[in-house]
């Protein structure tokens, strides 16, 4: 018997097309194709939608199987709902009306760390699974596990280390934050990590290794549209795809391009993506770097997800220069699905997805000189590009991923607490 599934995420890809939201929504549709009755719940706030007095919910989409939970009162430090009195009754009513057999949670942001506890007390027999997409419960620094002072990678969280990053927050509050989150997350029956690296971070944090399964993210099936590797260009073309922000390595990429230009190297870099909600200083920095690297570097702006395969078919190599512990970037999966070699940082889940010299090149993070050298190597060695294209590792389809999730869910047994 296929279960009734409530898929819950911290936004909706129509409002905020981040990797987590896109994957959660793709999986939601895959559950439906597998025969499940599924409902998608995306939490949002004033950044994307205004509140509608009288209800916590808003409609989105045209099929009636997707709704938004407006979450305007949220404590980002404790990842907690502030307006529990207003939101909890509406969530409980939704749960009792839909009566899911499974709640598949994709984030605690906006939904609140209390969400799995509300599910457990409302529907004691419901199975709760959570996909871990980043490090938000572990790290208050936007879930990056990067130190605030100098962008140094953080190898382990503790109240002392966290306090040293946020000196205006008392040390004991970090102790309370950890206990608060672990207590509320204890009602979750099973976790999924898309990478071994992310799993180990949560094991180190204190979640039992037996509770975390590794299931790689899947992609909607697409036929590769890339040209055959034998077709050569006079001028190599590189592509960047994704939001522009400091942690994605945007300035690192532009500084690398600047170095190549200063050495007289002829190339083209197409930067696809926008810089929403970024600081004025960051926007000013990249505006300057784009001006200094034009016309070799083309700023092409935001793109639609459905266009990414065609856009990638026009480049010789995709670049993913993130300087934080990325978990399982969809961009790398999209590129590999198009037999497109990738240059990426040799850390986190990126290092699991790209093996140096096999399906791409890896470089140290936050190192423009190393990135520039890899770009030049990729551009000047046609045989290498062909080898890396032939070595591409195509991601699983999202339907295969959904089947693996459903097999895991079948094995889960709910943690029982006394129903309210």
TrEMBL record:
The keyword Isomerase does not apply. Pfam families: Glyco_trans_1_4, Glyco_transf_4. GO terms for molecular function: glycosyltransferase activity. Residues 17-218 form the Glycosyltransferase subfamily 4-like N-terminal domain. It comes from Phyllobacterium endophyticum. Keywords: Transferase. It comes from the Bacteria. InterPro entries: Glyco_trans_4-like_N, Glycosyltransferase_grp1. This is Glycosyl transferase. Transmembrane segments: none annotated.
């Amino acid at each position: 018997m296929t279960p009734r599934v409530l898929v819950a995420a911290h936004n909706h890809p129509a409002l905020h097309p981040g990797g987590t939201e896109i994957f959660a929504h793709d999986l939601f549709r895959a559950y439906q194709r597998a025969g499940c009755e599924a409902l998608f719940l995306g939490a949002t706030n004033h950044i994307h939608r205004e509140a509608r007095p009288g209800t916590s919910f808003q409609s989105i989409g045209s099929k009636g199987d997707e709704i938004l939970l407006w979450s305007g009162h949220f404590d980002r430090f404790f990842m907690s709902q502030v307006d529990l009195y207003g939101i909890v009754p509406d969530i409980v009513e939704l749960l009792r009306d839909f009566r899911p057999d499974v709640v598949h949670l994709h984030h605690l942001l906006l939904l609140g760390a209390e969400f799995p506890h509300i599910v457990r007390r409302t529907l004691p027999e419901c199975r709760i699974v959570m996909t871990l997409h980043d490090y938000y419960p572990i790290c208050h620094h936007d879930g990056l596990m990067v130190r605030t002072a100098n962008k140094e990678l953080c190898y382990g969280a503790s109240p002392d280390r966290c306090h040293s990053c946020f000196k205006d927050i008392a040390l004991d509050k970090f102790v309370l934050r950890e206990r608060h989150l672990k207590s509320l997350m204890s009602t979750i029956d099973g976790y999924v990590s898309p990478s071994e690296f992310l799993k180990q971070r949560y094991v180190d944090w204190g979640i039992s290794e037996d509770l975390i399964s590794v299931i790689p993210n899947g992609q909607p099936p697409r036929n590769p549209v890339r040209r055959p590797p034998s077709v050569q260009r006079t001028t190599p073309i590189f592509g960047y795809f994704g939001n522009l922000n400091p942690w994605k390595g945007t300035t690192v990429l532009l500084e690398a391009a600047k170095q190549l230009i200063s050495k007289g190297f002829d190339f083209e870099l197409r930067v696809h993506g926008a810089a929403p909600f970024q600081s004025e200083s960051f926007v000013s920095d990249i505006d300057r770097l784009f001006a200094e690297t034009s016309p070799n570097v083309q700023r092409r702006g935001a793109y639609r997800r459905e266009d990414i395969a065609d856009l990638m078919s026009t480049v010789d190599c995709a670049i993913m220069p993130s300087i934080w512990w990325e978990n399982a970037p969809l961009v790398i999966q999209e590129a590999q699905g198009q037999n497109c070699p990738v240059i990426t940082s040799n850390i986190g889940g990126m290092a699991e997805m790209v093996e140096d010299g096999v399906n791409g090149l890896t470089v140290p993070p936050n190192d423009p000189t190393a990135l520039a050298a890899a770009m030049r190597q990729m551009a000047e060695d046609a045989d290498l590009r062909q080898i890396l294209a032939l070595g591409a590792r195509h991601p699983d389809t999202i339907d295969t991923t959904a089947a693996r999730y459903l097999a895991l869910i079948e094995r889960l047994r709910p943690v029982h607490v006394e129903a309210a």
